[in-house]
Amino acid sequence: MSAQSAPARRPRRLSFRTATAAAAALVALGALTVASPAAAHDELLGTSPKADTAVAELPADLVLTFSGVLMDEPGATEVVVTDASGTDLTDGPAVLSGTRLTQPLNTQAARPGPVTVRWRVVSSDGHPISNEFSFSYGDGSVVPTASLTAQPDPSSTNGDSAWGWPVAVVAIVLVGAGGAVVAVLLARSRGRRED
Ligand SMILES: [Cu+2]
């Protein structure tokens, strides 16, 4: 190693350290983003009527069952039930009892066909979770729910919310990118030591 080249390398070594720290931070952030929601949030275990099914009559109560005892605070729970024309089918506020959320329905207002349910609750860990599903009643055909996370899905590790999967994908990309940066930087520093 010549004396002339040493000063020129100092700033490069500093930026290498900074880049390594940034890459490590990305990896840690990605891992946290993947791990925390899946570990802590409650999940919607089932609904009555079931998602993506057809029922003969609209029941007087819509029931959502969760994996944990939901937080019962003013404004924490919201259930919006509409028919194909957008008519509100709820009959008063949803009633929360432990893990069960019951939403009375106005059976007179609904027209046969698809019914869309949008729900938002506060999980037992204090985090809001939300999603939507649909079913149909009468002679209406079943409209499959775009997001299938409202029902238990063995292939899913995160049934918390509609944006759970995009977040997981971004996190995985971040982890991959961070790992690649670390690998490139390690390879470069190894090459530098050899010269
Ligand atoms: Cu949580």
How is this structure best described in words?
The chain has 195 residues and is of the alpha+beta class. The protein is 34% helix and 24% strand. Strands 1-3-6-5 form a four-stranded antiparallel beta sheet, with no helix packed on it. Strands 2-8-7-4 form a four-stranded mixed beta sheet, with no helix packed on it. 23% of the residues are buried. Copper (II) ion (CU) binds at residues 37, 40-41, 123, 125, 127. Keywords: Copper, Membrane, Metal-binding, Signal, Transmembrane, Transmembrane helix. Pfam families: CopC (PF04234). This is CopC domain-containing protein.
Brief write-up:
The protein has 195 residues and is α+β, with helices and mostly antiparallel strands.
Structural class: alpha+beta
Tell me which ligands are bound. Answer: copper (II) ion
Instruction: Give the spatial strand order of the biggest sheet.
Output: 1-3-6-5
Q: Supply the number of helical segments.
A: 2
CATH architecture of the largest domain: Sandwich
Helix content: 25-40%
Would you state the CATH class of the largest domain? Mainly Beta
